[in-house]
UniProtKB/TrEMBL annotation:
It comes from SAR92 clade bacterium. Gene3D superfamilies: 2,3-Dihydroxybiphenyl 1,2-Dioxygenase, domain 1. This is VOC family protein. InterPro entries: Glyas_Bleomycin-R_OHBP_Dase, Glyoxalase-like_dom. It holds the Pfam family Glyoxalase_3. Residues 5-192 form the Glyoxalase-like domain.
Length: 262
């Protein structure tokens, strides 16, 4: 399987409020379940991609904020140990809003081995799990590198639908159907694009003929410069007749544009 865009992650201070905000914008939001001290909710699209709303469980957030100094130490320790936790700890020790993105693969070990051979500082892959509200356990591996230009790599252990259920109605109440494009803010857009092309697209069978567009499993990835208003932007197809931009206060820092489905 060629690499597939899997999901983008938004870290929020209040998961219940974030769910209510996205429901208010016309999205179906599915509760994903718990991974220890954090829990999430998913906004799933018809092309097997999703937006993850991730928050600390109620009762943990106050203690967590008091432990920011400890988290800084943990980040250092994780970096020393060289595991993918180095990347994940930054999600909850940094700013709220969009924090990362993941690409789904079925050859994670092969890819990270080849990345290491090409000189990348590869982090050790770890197994993760999430207990769903129905009690089932979804399991997967995460791997990758410290390099923020590259996505986190995800390989499912349990069937993908246990981690990411299919969009039941095929579209959301607001008409949204598929994730078409993600934009990421980087200082050096040329360098970021070249890194992504070198280490991700050689494994992909769906590259665009346009050299300025990086296509990962049908989702276009673009890098915006420092003048980009938000750290992340998403373009969604929907059943409406005119393009519209969603309220940035309700999307928790991600600029979301809905465009008519063609």
């Amino acid at each position: 399987m060629a690499p597939q865009f899997d999901h983008a992650v938004i870290f929020v201070s209040d998961l219940e409020k974030a769910i209510a905000d996205f429901v208010g914008l016309g999205f179906d939001v599915v509760r994903g379940g718990s991974h220890g001290s954090t829990e999430n909710a998913l906004i799933i699209f018809a092309n097997q991609t999703y937006l993850e709303l991730l928050g600390v469980k109620p009762g943990w957030s106050g203690r967590l904020m008091k432990m920011m100094g400890i988290l800084a130490i943990l980040e250092w320790l994780s970096a020393r140990r060289g595991t993918i936790f180095f990347r994940l700890i930054r999600w909850i020790s940094g700013e709220l809003g969009p924090v990362d993105w993941c690409v789904r693969v079925d050859n994670l070990t092969t890819m990270t081995s080849e990345w290491s051979a090409q000189g990348l500082d590869v982090l050790k892959t770890k197994e993760f799990s999430r207990k769903r509200p129905d009690g089932k356990i979804a399991r997967w591996y995460l791997g990758g590198t410290k390099n923020g230009y590259l996505p986190i790599l995800l390989e499912d252990i349990t069937p993908m639908v246990e981690r990411m259920p299919l969009l039941a109605a095929g579209r959301h109440p607001n008409g949204a159907t598929e994730l078409l494009q993600i934009g990421l803010r980087e200082n050096d857009t040329t360098f970021a694009g070249n890194v992504l092309k070198k280490f991700i697209t050689p494994y992909s069978s769906s590259n665009s003929k346009n050299n300025d567009v990086i296509n990962i499993g049908g989702v276009e990835v673009n890098f915006g410069g420092i003048n980009m208003a938000t750290k992340m932007s998403l373009t969604l197809s929907y059943s409406g007749g005119e393009s519209q931009n969603l309220d940035l206060d309700k999307t928790h820092g991600v600029a979301i544009k809905m465009v008519p489905r063609t």
